[in-house]
Structure formats: structure tokens, C-alpha cells
Amino acid sequence: MDAIGTMNITRKFNDLVAVDGINLKIRKGELFSLLGPNGAGKTTLVRMLCCLLQPTAGTAFIMGHDITKDSFKVKGLIGVSPQDTVLSERLNCWENLSLVGKMHRLSSEEVRERSKELLQTMGLMERAGEQVKTFSGGMKRRLSIAMSLVHDPAILFLDEPTLGLDPQARRAVWEHIALLKKEKTILLTTHYMEEADSLSDRSGIIDEGKIVALGTPEELKRDFFTGRSIVVRAENIPADVMQELCGRYARVERTNGGVEISHGDLDFHEIVEYLFSRGIIVSSATLKQPTLEDVFIQITGKKLRE
Ligand SMILES: Nc1ncnc2c1ncn2[C@@H]1O[C@H](COP(=O)(O)OP(=O)(O)OP(=O)(O)O)[C@@H](O)[C@H]1O
Ligand SMILES: [Mg+2]
Q1: How far, in Å, from the CA of 83 to the mean position of ligand 2?
Q2: How far apart are CA 84 and CA 109, in angstroms?
């Protein structure tokens, strides 16, 4: 049985199709990252899977339970950290965590034990007794993740768990997610491609409500990225040479200390020889492996979204 299985799940807002007939299967124990530009439909999909929003067509099953018919069962199995952090600002960390724990019928003892552990991991212990309204954005985010974990759910939905976190906190959160990975099924959304690349078992790229690419990060790079890039280090490439390069190759970008050139069928030697022939001293030229971000941009384009 899949942990999550969607069947043509769709959500419209008047004329706008935010999620457009998605069929997706996520296995038990899998860490699946949903990547996509702003407005692609990630949060809408997550909200439907968490029974916070009704699909307008299709449905999904969480551990075999239909989200449209059995939301009570589904809610018992999942933990959610929403994109817009929802906390009770007048309560402190312990009280916020206890609220969720009680909702899931944990004993006071259990709540306390779990809270202690989570507050420590999330680096919130020192401020745990303070009202949440005095917290920074990053601290609120970390508390929100802790709240999604109090009842030790089998399935975790993390909608941009590292949004607005500083690099230290982001690492701490990702390390924690990596630890959870072994025991839980996790669906997360993120705009941090590097993190998705290193942690995900599989990723799906969503654009305009549809899954447009699906696979392990390695498969995505192999199957969806066409073209190669070469990074050349060379000083003082004059404007006319840059212009000529632009005329020959698909993408040419001046970098700090040289130029990066991408093209479908790139001839490494041809580029270096051409630069030599123009009297440019090349100190190094290396073939660049595509990153998940390269794949993302190639698939979803460069146009800014809403
Ligand atoms: N309650 C709503 N009413 C009307 N339109 C909505 C509503 N919620 C979402 N939308 C629209 O649905 C589309 C998808 O939004 P969604 O929040 O799912 O995107 P997202 O992929 O999570 O984007 P982001 O990366 O910015 O968080 C957007 O065009 C958005 O404006
Ligand atoms: Mg979102």
C-alpha cells in the first residue's frame, strides 16, 4: 500500500485550476519533495491532502483512507507544518505543543516528554517559556515543525519548512528531517534545490497545477536536462568576443573571473581553441554537472510567476 496516492486530484478557484488532475504515488518511508515556482499549486495540493481544503474533483488516499470521506482517520495519521505558520501567539512553546498533543489525545506525560525532545532538537529550549509573539520568524517556523511532530505521525507534510530560516537553523532543520526520513513518510515543498537534491528519495516538479517531471534527483538531472555547460576561467574577455560567443552558443553568461557557456552539443575543445585564437589566456575550463536548479529552470522556464 502506498502512503499517499492521489487520483486525478483537482482544485479550482473559480476559473483558476490551481491543481490540475494530479496522479501521484508516494511510498511508505519515502521522502518526496514537491518543487515548483510560486503559484504552481504546491500548497493547494498539500492542503487537500491534509483535509484542510476539499478537492473540486478527484481524491487521494492516505494509508488507504479517502481524504474526502475519512478525514477523521487521515488527520490522526498526519502531521502538518503549514506554509503560513499557525501558532497561538499568546501561548509559550510548551503550551502550543500541548495544544496539539491534547488534540491527538496524548497524555500530559507523553506531551511533556515529546515536547522536551523536540524543543531541544529545534533549539528552542532556552526560550520555551516565553510567549510566542516575542519570537523571530525563524523561531516560529521551528516551533511549527515541532508541533507537526508532537504526536509522532506516520506521515509528515512540511510546506516550506525552511522558509525564512538563517543558514544555521536551516541546516539544523534539514538534519532533523534527515533523521526522520528513516521512520516516516515525508512530503515537503521547498524552493531550496540543493537541499531537495541531497535529501529527497524522489522529487516532483509541479507547474501550473500539473506534475511536469518526476524521479530521483539523479534521474531528473539525467533525463530532463539537455545540454552541457562549461565554466571557463579567463581574465578580461572583451565585449566583442562575448558577443561572438553569444552568437554561437545557446547561453553565455559572464561570471566572476570568466564565462559560463551552455549548449546542446557542446564541443569543449572548440571553445578553448576559439578563445586562444582571440588571444585570451584561459586558466581553466571545466565541464559543469547540472544541478537540480538547472533542471528546474530548464523545465519551468525563467519567466517570473505571480
Ligand atoms: N483560497 C484561494 N482562493 C483563490 N485562489 C487561490 C487560493 N489559494 C490558492 N489560490 C491560487 O492557486 C494557485 C496556486 O497557489 P498555491 O498557494 O498552491 O501555490 P504554491 O505552489 O504553494 O506557491 P508558493 O511557492 O508561492 O507557495 C495560485 O494562483 C493562487 O493564487
Ligand atoms: Mg506554497
Answers
A1: 6
A2: 29
Please identify, by atom number, the ligand 1 atom nearest to the C-alpha of residue 44.
18
pLDDT tens, residue by residue, 194-215 = 999 999 999 999 999 999 999 9
- Residue (of 17, 8, 9) closest to 46 by Cα position: 9
Cell of 228: 552541457
Answer yes or no: are the C-beta atoms of 101 and 114 closer than 8 Å: yes
Q: Which residue is it, cell 572583451? A: 238
Domain ranges in the chain?
A: 4-215, 226-289
Grid cell listed for 133: 509573539
Q: Which of 15, 42, 83 to mutate to test the pocket of ligand 1 (most atoms within 8 A of CB)?
A: 42
> What ligand 1 atom has the least distance to the C-alpha of 209?
14
Q: What is the DSSP letter of 302?
A: S
Give the ligand at the shortest distance from the Cα of 83. Answer: 2
What's the pLDDT tens digit per position in 98-146? Answer: 999 999 999 999 999 999 999 998 889 999 999 999 999 889 999 999 9
Q: Is 14 exposed, middle or buried, given 0-12, 13-18 or 19+ CB atoms closer than 10 A?
A: exposed
Please give the class, per CATH, of domain 226-289: alpha beta
pTM more than 0.85: yes
Residue 46 C-alpha from the chain's centroid: 12
Contacts (Cβ under 8 Å, ≥6 apart) of 32: 4, 26, 185, 186, 187, 188, 200, 201, 202, 203, 204
What's the fold here for domain 4-215?
A: Rossmann fold (3.40.50)
- CA separation for the pair 169, 141 (Å, rounded): 10
- Check pocket membership of 39 for ligand 1, CB cut-off 6 A: yes
**Contact between residue 42 and residue 34 where contact means Cβ atoms under 8 Å apart:** yes
Distance 55 CA to ligand 1 centre (A): 14
